[in-house]
Amino acid sequence: NSPLETMILRNFIAVGATAAACARPIHFAAARGVRRLDDAYNNEYSYTTDMCVSVIAIAGSPDYRYLQENGIDIDVYDQGEEFVCELNTGLTVPIKGTEEQMHMMQSLLHEGTFISSEMTIGIADNLMSLHGDDSVYLPPGNIILAPRNDRTTRRRTRKMLKGARSNLGRDDYDSRNLAVGSRLPYEGPKPILAVRVTDSDGNVHQDNARTVSDNIFGTYGDLVNAKSQFEACSFGKLDVTDEYSTDISKKLSDRGVIDIEIPIPLLGNDRSAIRAAVVTAAEEKLGFVLPGPFQHVMFVIEKCYTDCGWAAYAYVNSWLSIYQGNNYRYVAVQMHELGHNLNLAHSGGIDGKTYTDHTGLMGNPYYEDEEGAMCFNPAKVFQIARGVGSWFNENDHDIKEWNSGTTGGTNWSGKIIGIADYKNNPNSRPVVVKLESGGPNDLFVGFNRAEGNNKEVADARDQVTVIEAGNDGLGYSQSYLKATLSEGEVYSIANWRGSGLELTIFVREINIGSNPGYADVLITLGDLPTQTPTLQTTLAPTSKPSKNPTGQPTSKPTMNPTGQPTNTPSKSPTKATVIWSQCGNSVCEKDENSSTCPVDCLGRELDTTFEYKLGSGGNMFTVEAKRNIVISSFAINSNSLGQGEVKVYSRKGSYAGHLHSSDGWDLIYDNPTLDHERRGRPTELGEFQRVVMIPQGTSQSFFVTSSIGLVYRAGSQEHSEFSSDESLSILEGVGTDATFSNTMFSPRVWGGIIRYNVIDTTLVPTMSPIPSLGTHTEKCGDAVCAMNEDSESCPADCAGRGLETTFDFSLGSSGNMFSLKAMRDISISTFTVNAMRKGQGAVKVYTRNGSYIGHEQNSAGWELIYDNSEVDHGRRGQPTELGDFDNAVFIASGATQSFLVTSSKGLVYEAGAGEGDLFASDESLVIYEGIGTTGEFAGNTYSPRVFGGIIRYDAYQTTPVVCGDSVCAMNEDSESCPADCAGKELETTFDFSLGSSGNMFNLKALRDIYVSSFAINAMGKGQGAVKVYTRNGSYIGHEQNSAGWELIYDNSEVDHGRRGQPTELGDFDNAVFIASGATQSFFVTSSKGLVYEAGTKEGDQIAIDESLVVYEGIGTTGEFAGDTYSPRVFGGKISTKALLREPYSGLIVIVEKCLEMDA
């Protein structure tokens, strides 16, 4: 063996020369769950384990707010566990290697071959080496594992940091005060020390030692903390304590807390350097090597300055955890990091991401001070139950393990209780059922009862959860949530254990009214038993809908178009249809229909999927028609073979708000003896008793039920598009039982096929409907506020209405700003919001006419309509009701109104798709995506963001359009109503902070308009030259080239006003016509200069009215030359005249097409 060269760790350690150990690498058994390593691992090599006493994995919690607001993708940031080398001095340094090596380390860790802090590594044919950046580098080669090396004594040979004093003796200390085996004890006293850190610049967390002690130990009355929640989850078996076997009372700043100073700044130093500095300073103060008498040590630093994105992190299967900022206060973060110390890995969600299982503490935890009463998911409970010093080992029935075998015909059934009821279990029911897979990755089934120690669990409350975890569930392994099941739902796994059979987990009943509450679960390998009474009872409808529409059809069919047909064009381009048609290409083109091209447009099919993991008695979903279509039949995905009843209901528009009542639904198909195919295969229904016609541009909802049950898959977002073709879109919906009840599972993807025909537009108004099995006409009390109803004539439908966006959330800040548009006259009376934190706090609501864009940072024009400093905020994801505004806000039909909502407790929301995009709507109101804010008309803004909550309003019959009301309605123009439509002005802003010689920007017309003049914001007073150029379409790509631009205004004697005041240009030489929907660019220059504001993003909307949209553009220093600055907001006013649109004739369209073809 060659000698190990002397290695120096810069600024930290000096290790003398030592001989490399000659040892035989570990030969791994081929036992289940441990893979045999490559032959290269199983030969003898010289390698060293002396350098690293052990190798420790590091895992932690992401700082979601930092990542989101800095545009960092969590999936990019999260690269899995890191590894550090524990030196014989007790310090740790990062281990770096090839990407393959690091992935191998992570894989060995999760399968249980490598155990953090219990093993060390060497490299075949090479020695690990220390390099100048204070890291251990692994030369390319195979990883050799060896037991932990405690042979080298930990004598104090490290070089002290500048400014530090050494009072350590020569005694030797074991590296940990934890169990030496591969598992840690989960019970007994857990002495914890908190270390409050001050850096060399004086940066220290604002909480004093007393507050830190209270937040961790509850010393002075804090109700929710690591001590209280570990005691609750362990039922008193794990005791977080500040009592130690060594007297350090004179060193403590408060109970369980010491203050230390480090001789380096937090700014500019990475995690490793800060960690080493804190360990050194703490050990100097205490007089012994950490962890000493403590089982866990928690470092609290002021904030992160370098390599940020983490909230906290911890050593796996070891003693140290580190918290930056306020994250140490949050009980769920404390529990999460201490969970890593206890050898628990992260919990991922159904989406396969690392942190997204919110049914337990090892997923993304709550970032709250007084919220976090939740425990661990079933896989982690099993690991704790089978570990050293278990919380759940008092009875054999606590944890069940079931081996299904591979031959089929086996099942397990029973009632599972939640972890909250572990001590309330008179019937000896299990808290976890492990399903043995025959490999290392097993399934763990539990009942996520939301009460007691688990009352604030974030997801799958009172549902059955199915978790997958490796390492046989016995050690550190990333787990993944596979399913969350409500009563009546099914989760299936194909080819279980290679048997060719399905494993099915079926929730027969959930009863939270009993004591204790339970979930009755049936787990079967192979087909579900056909004679299981419970199964049939659960999936079959318990009764017919309470309001079954059995009445005679009305004279006016429900789904017949209500409007009059449009006039047929006087010169329909029928020859053009023949010219461009491609009949026979299997695509129903826009100029084809079932009459002109039956081969393409008749008997069309659109399917979703026949994959499935879940199931229930029914599915409710919406379709959107892109053409005029007639739906004639479905094929469905049934739960099992056999004869049963299928019903199909339909209604116009969305099912939202109509899930629990049969009012407004038409029964279009009812077959009590349908032969169902096995799951995964189409069950054909045959023709509906009544076909459903859906006009182009409208939506229709369907409710399909089966007494045998339907299977389907989980969706990504309710109402999002799942499947589409050129004529039809199918949206994600919900699972239900077989009645209009309160049972709902969302989002769910209906599994099946829709069969339809594309029809000629001229047939729409004259179609003879097939008699309905039951129709429903609009009437007062049908939960739809019809246009002939209002809050006075029909308060049941039109008063106190609510339009909900979403209560899902992934982001948050102190405020939301967004716009609404009224589709009829309405009065908004109050909001319901989605609070970030529970408790009493202040809420304010401001409003202004029109869009908020351009007014985000200026309170002028905003009106405060609600100010309450004592609002009781609910938990996130639950509605917080504000009560009535001081003044209700009236919005006229067609008008836009903006709102700013702020809360001292914070608001949570979702990221949007595009600022200004439509997010939610009903027959009266549209809600658009807006922005998040950090202050009232100040601070940062984040875009796009979706306001989370409910808008509550009353609807009125729309006031007739009146010329002179200052609104240019769609049936008015500059000739019929010049008072409203001629000389209209749309202002951006006259605020300014920047300037140059010119502005270039885009406009978009929402109707046909003429742009006749501008007012500008001049940089300097006095007479000067102004030019205005324009071009069709966007300016982008044409900033430096005058080709295609037209000079429409050139005046060398414009009297410029002072900056911040309008400078009127007078009429352009030629007014600029912009057709509805078209974009036009403008370039304004002035010899006196222009001033403006910096924008948010080039191309973002900055101002809007009923006729026009103005977008952010650029500043320029010359005419089609020089520098450009982006984004910049044109400062000024745009004067327009509105026109009534005259449609082109068919002949003109054909000529244009022919010209295009000739060209």
Mean pLDDT: 80
What is the overall silhouette? Answer: globular
Structural class: mainly beta
**Helix count?**
14
| Percent helix range | under 10%
Radius of gyration: 35 Å
Structure summary, number of beta strands: 66
Question: DSSP strand (E) fraction?
Answer: 35-45%
Low-confidence stretches: 1-49, 151-183, 528-581, 762-777, 1141-1159
Biggest pleated-sheet summary = 11 strands, mixed
What separation lies between the terminal Cα atoms? 82 Å
Short structural description:
With 1159 residues, the protein is mainly β. Helix content is 10%, strand content 36%.
Give an overview of the whole structure.
The chain has 1159 residues and is mostly beta strands. Helices cover 10% and strands 36% of the residues. The longest helix has 16 residues, at 271-286. It is globular.
Please describe the structure with a list of short key phrases separated by commas or semicolons:
1159 residues; mainly beta; 11-stranded mixed β-sheet; 8-stranded antiparallel β-sheet; 14 helices; globular; disordered N terminus; disordered C terminus
Please give the structural blueprint.
Layout: E1 3-4, E2 7-9, E3 13-15, E4 18-19, E5 54-62, H1 64-69, H2 74-77, E6 82-86, E7 92-96, H3 99-111, E8 119-123, E9 129-130, E10 136-137, E11 143-147, E12 188-198, H4 209-217, H5 226-234, E13 238-241, E14 257-261, H6 271-286, E15 296-301, E16 310-315, E17 320-324, H7 331-341, E18 347-348, H8 378-385, E19 399-403, E20 411-416, E21 432-436, E22 442-447, E23 464-469, E24 479-485, E25 490-493, E26 503-511, E27 518-525, H9 533-539, H10 574-580, H11 598-601, E28 604-607, E29 614-625, E30 629-637, E31 642-652, E32 666-676, E33 682-684, E34 692-694, E35 699-714, E36 721-724, E37 728-731, E38 733-736, E39 745-749, E40 752-758, H12 795-798, E41 801-804, E42 811-822, E43 826-834, E44 839-849, E45 863-873, E46 879-881, E47 889-891, E48 896-911, E49 918-921, E50 925-928, E51 930-933, E52 941-946, E53 949-955, H13 978-981, E54 984-987, E55 994-1005, E56 1009-1017, E57 1022-1032, E58 1046-1056, E59 1062-1064, E60 1072-1074, E61 1079-1094, E62 1101-1104, E63 1108-1111, E64 1113-1116, E65 1124-1129, E66 1132-1138, H14 1146-1158
Parallel strand pairs: 7-10, 12-13, 12-14, 12-15, 15-17, 18-24, 19-21
Antiparallel strand pairs: 1-4, 2-3, 5-6, 5-16, 6-7, 8-11, 9-10, 16-17, 20-27, 21-22, 22-23, 23-24, 25-26, 26-27, 28-40, 29-35, 29-37, 29-38, 30-33, 30-34, 30-40, 31-32, 31-35, 35-39, 36-37, 38-39, 41-53, 42-48, 42-50, 42-51, 43-46, 43-47, 43-53, 44-45, 44-48, 48-52, 49-50, 51-52, 54-66, 55-61, ...
